[in-house]
């Protein structure tokens, strides 16, 4: 039985990315991304497809027990596949950083709301949909979510 860390920690001397240019298709390359799965593969593919220089971008995980994915990219020739993948990853990192900042800002607002005056609606008595919950629950009375 393999160690769990083998699925996401690079081995000594293992390259994180291997680039293979496609000899049959112009301006195309296949990238083997080690120790990653569908999560990163789909995000990179989506980012690549949003770029106007990219003609084709697709990925696959050859086997679920092998921790890598292959992403194939073809560009219009104005930029190399390697450069467009680097740019896509930089944009993706920027998007995720922005999302993280927004997420942290929302939680800081929640902390302010929970420290409000007694009797006010605060995060402690908000249901998941933003309404307030009383002692009888979010649906009022003795009802639960199945009793409409």
Detailed description of the structure:
The structure is a single chain. It is flat and about 65 Å long. It has a four-stranded antiparallel β-sheet with strand order 1-2-4-3, covered by helices on one side. A hairpin with a 6-residue loop joins strand 1 and strand 2 (28-34). It is of the alpha+beta class and 148 residues long. The mean pLDDT is 83. It is 31% helix and 18% strand. The chain is built from two helices and four strands, in the order E-E-H-E-E-H.
Number of helices: 2
Low-confidence stretches: none
Distance between the termini: 50 Å
Query: Tell me about the biggest sheet?
Result: 4 strands, antiparallel
Please give the number of β-strands.
4
Mean pLDDT: 83
Computed Rg: 24 Å
Q: Helix amount, in percent?
A: 25-40%
Coarse structural class: alpha+beta
Task: Output the helix-strand order.
Answer: EEHEEH
* Proportion of residues in β-strands: 15-25%
Question: Any idea what the shape is?
Answer: flat
Topology:
Blueprint lengths: L16 E5 L6 E7 L3 H12 L4 E7 L7 E8 L5 H34 L34
Antiparallel strand pairs: 1-2, 2-4, 3-4
């Amino acid at each position: 039985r393999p160690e769990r860390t083998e699925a996401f920690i690079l081995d000594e001397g293992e390259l994180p990315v291997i680039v293979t240019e496609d000899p049959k298709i112009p301006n195309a390359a296949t990238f083997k991304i080690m120790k990653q799965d569908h999560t990163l593969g789909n995000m990179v593919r989506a980012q690549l497809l949003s770029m106007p220089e990219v003609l084709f971008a697709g990925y696959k995980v050859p086997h679920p027990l092998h921790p890598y994915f292959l992403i194939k990219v073809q560009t219009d020739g104005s930029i190399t596949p390697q450069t467009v993948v680097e740019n896509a990853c930089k944009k993706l990192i920027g998007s995720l950083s922005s999302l993280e900042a927004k997420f942290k800002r929302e939680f800081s607002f929640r902390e302010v709301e929970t420290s409000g005056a007694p009797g006010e609606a605060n995060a402690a008595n908000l249901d998941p949909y933003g309404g307030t919950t009383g002692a009888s629950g979010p649906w009022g009375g003795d009802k639960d979510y199945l009793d409409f």
